[in-house]
Write a structure and sequence with these properties.
4-stranded parallel beta sheet; alpha/beta; globular; 426 residues; binds Double cubane cluster; 54% helix
């Protein structure tokens, strides 16, 4: 960052000392994890720029938009429909919660055996280091896992503009009705926040922007089926992470440019790793920025990641919203239909997730699956057993990993991952 953003951060109420410390750690991590990679597509230069300005230029854009009367809506879950946020001309930002920062402060309010993701957003808030949280006019929580659901009750005390959306836990007709009711309530709340009434044209536009972003990410996903893989799993993950807070149209454009470049690479049989490198599908909890620990271990241990069954990945992007409706009601129903298919482990039963993992493993020619669960995340830790059983029955080697955001277990994880990669080598 060349511009001095300190006055902006001060205005946002950030703790500059703590914020400097966070940026210092992030910069070093990015250098060691991303810039140290070889053979990266040149289009990743855009992502490097976005990351270098993640607390700078992007926040300035948000503040300029706010000054022009637009609202910022921060979200934690892919059940929050961006289409509605865009339809009221607000800006949606995914709040990352992917780093261990201020955990000791978080643990004064939350039990120690809470997952790292929840502790992270408390830590960021309590230490005043996240400009996205501070810039948001409204933050949307959701009743997914018990951890988040109960933590939001406490979070509301330190983040009064928190709005909580109910998400069903089963997939019956009445559950779809519940989601429909919640999306109607959310629509009304957004209309109240912005003073904008959602009409058909506005909703169609919101749907088109988000569908286009998904299509670009689907295009990227499919290109990773090539051997040699044209892009590293780390870079593909970064693209999926940045999708949550970059300007959606500019982002979609950049991803499509990267895909053009990857198509050329595939034609020339160029890759980031040699042809025949063991291929891994990662499945499980979402990996928010800057949670790159496990992918980095995998890709420095002789394998390439070819897909993510994750909310920061294909669980989050699969399926488009049908945009053919001609009324707000019809389009709202189409949004409900699309989101109701998300197969997060908070649902019971959750057979479609097992099918999706198997499908992705075959589609991307994965030699094995690594199931990643954050420690104390009951939904994903418990579901990892049936996932492993189903994959093994299908002849797909699988390893289950449970970890947190700390760096302490890196050596141990690396030993396990290396041993797994040895077993899936052709
Ligand atoms: S739709 S995965 S983004 S809830 S890791 S906080 S589940 S204890 S993040 Fe998620 Fe929405 Fe589901 Fe996706 Fe709880 Fe688990 Fe922590 Fe989690």
């Amino acid at each position: 960052m060349t511009t001095d953003y300190r006055p902006m951060w001060t205005n946002l109420g950030l703790n500059l000392e703590a914020h400097d410390a966070l940026l210092g750690v992030l910069g070093k991590m990015y250098q060691d994890t991303y810039l140290a990679q070889k053979n990266r597509p040149s289009g990743m230069g855009y992502l490097d720029f976005v990351m270098s300005e993640v607390h700078g230029l992007r926040i300035k854009e948000l503040m300029d938009a706010k000054a022009a009367g637009r609202k910022i809506v921060g979200t934690f879950c892919v059940f929050v429909p961006d289409e509605l946020i865009l339809a009221v001309d607000a800006i949606s930002v995914g709040l990352c919660a992917g780093a261990e920062f201020g955990i000791e402060d978080a643990e004064k309010m939350l039990p120690r055996n809470t997952c790292s993701l929840i502790k992270a957003f408390f830590g960021f808030k309590l230490n005043k280091v996240c400009p996205y949280i501070e810039a948001s006019n409204m933050i949307v929580g959701e009743t997914t896992c018990d951890g988040k659901k109960k933590a939001y009750e406490i979070f509301k005390g330190i983040q009064p503009n928190l709005y909580v959306m109910e998400v069903p836990q089963m997939k019956r007709t009445q559950d779809k009705e519940l989601l429909k009711g919640e999306y109607a309530r959310f629509k009304a709340e957004l209309e109240k926040l912005t003073g904008v009434t959602i009409n058909t044209a506005r909703l169609k536009k919101g749907i088109a922007i988000v569908n286009n972003r998904r299509k670009a990410l689907h295009r990227l996903a499919v290109l990773r089926a090539a051997d040699p893989a044209p892009i590293s799993g780390l870079d593909a993950l970064l693209i999926n992470q940045v999708a949550f807070y970059d300007n959606p149209e500019r982002f979609t454009d950049s991803v499509n440019k990267i895909c053009d470049e990857l198509e050329l690479r595939i034609k020339k049989q160029e890759g980031v790793f040699p042809k025949g490198t063991p291929r891994v599908l990662v499945s499980g909890c979402p990996m928010a920025v800057p949670n790159w620990k496990l992918p980095s271990i995998i890709e420095t241990s002789g394998a390439v990641i070819v897909g993510e069954e994750s909310c920061v990945g294909e669980r989050g992007t699969q399926n488009l919203v049908d945009d053919s409706g001609t009324t707000v009601d019809a389009l709202m129903n189409a949004i409900v239909e699309r989101y109701f298919k998300i197969d997060c482990a908070i649902f019971t039963p959750n057979e479609s997730r097992l099918d999706h993992i198997k499908t992705l493993a075959r589609k991307y020619h994965a030699d094995g699956v690594i199931h990643y669960a954050l420690q104390f995340c009951s939904p994903y830790v418990i579901e990892s057993y049936p996932v492993e059983q189903a994959l093994i029955t299908d002849g797909i080697p699988t390893m289950r990993i449970e970890t947190d955001y700390s760096q302490e277990d890196i050596g141990q994880l690396k030993t396990r991952v290396e041993a797994f990669i040895e077993t899936i080598k052709k």
